[in-house]
Design goal:
The protein is α/β, with parallel strands linked by helices. It is built from eight helices and twelve strands. The strands form two sheets. Strands 1-2-3-4-5-6-7 form a seven-stranded mixed β-sheet. Strands 8-9-10-11-12 form a five-stranded mixed β-sheet, with helices on one face. α7 packs antiparallel against α8. It starts with a strand and ends with a helix.
Length: about 250
């Protein structure tokens, strides 16, 4: 389950693993980490930083798209070990602290276990610590709107639905959107590939998730870095439209 790191634009690194993705943005020796994998991937996150010639002590900020365990699994560790602040959208703070729960339940998983791919995904999730009751002790509410002052200067854009405070990150000067789980290109539990929403049972509010595809489609970019699946090269607006069409009558 090792990860693979690719530089897809100047100072923008896409770290792909079978189960989830994270992104590294650099400015000199300084690093922004966007999402942090499962708890069992902590060494992979650190190694991915070293693989691009940086030191984890150079992490200036950890940004979170949303507070599901596969995206915050190393966040508290990075904060405790390297002193990096963990930033989330103000609308995601309560979820990050686990004051509320906006996640697929064990019953959601069990009721879908018959679907192709769900059982292998669930087994790997358990192996990576995905059943841990894990949150972020002291998340920082990021300033919005506008570009953040960390390496890469990403612009956070609220795209709710998967969770209430799900946030994507736009790098307009590089034509990149980092979409988390608001728009993906593949998942072990999905029978299709290419731009899509996650299966419906993963979303806290499916209607809002579908509407957020319109938000994504308004961003000027031709590279999509999803939270699951491969990189999408091409119009992000068209990718968002494809995902919306695939969701069909559920919208």
């Amino acid at each position: 389950m090792k990860s693979k790191t690719s530089e897809i634009a100047d100072g923008v690194f896409f770290v792909h693993s079978e189960m989830v993705i994270w992104v590294l943005l650099t400015d000199g020796d300084a690093v922004t980490v966007i999402d942090t994998g499962y708890p069992g991937q902590r060494s992979d996150v650190e190694e991915s930083i070293r693989a691009i010639g940086r030191d984890p002590h150079g992490i200036e900020a950890v940004l979170i798209t949303h507070a599901h365990v596969d995206h915050i699994g190393s966040a508290q560790y990075l904060a405790d070990t390297y002193g990096a602040p963990v930033l989330v959208h103000p609308a995601e703070v309560a979820h990050a602290r686990r004051e509320c729960h906006e996640v697929a339940t064990p019953w959601d998983v069990l009721s879908n276990i018959w679907r192709p791919g769900v059982l292998p995904w669930a087994i790997k999730l358990i192996q990576l610590g995905g059943t841990a009751k894990y949150g972020i002790d002291s998340p920082t509410a990021m300033p919005v709107p506008g570009a953040l002052t960390c390496p890469g200067a990403p612009i956070p854009v609220l795209a709710p639905g998967h969770t209430s405070g799900h946030t994507i990150y736009h790098l307009p000067d590089r034509g990149v959107v980092i979409s988390g789980d608001a728009l993906i290109t593949g998942h072990l539990t999905s029978p299709i590939s290419g731009p899509q929403l996650l299966p419906q049972w993963f979303d806290h509010d499916r209607t809002a998730a579908a509407e957020s595809l319109r938000i994504i489609g308004e961003l000027d970019a031709d590279i999509l870095l999803p939270g699951h699946g491969p990189i999408h090269h091409g119009s992000v607006a068209e990718a968002a439209a494809t995902a919306r069409a695939r969701a069909g009558s559920a919208l």
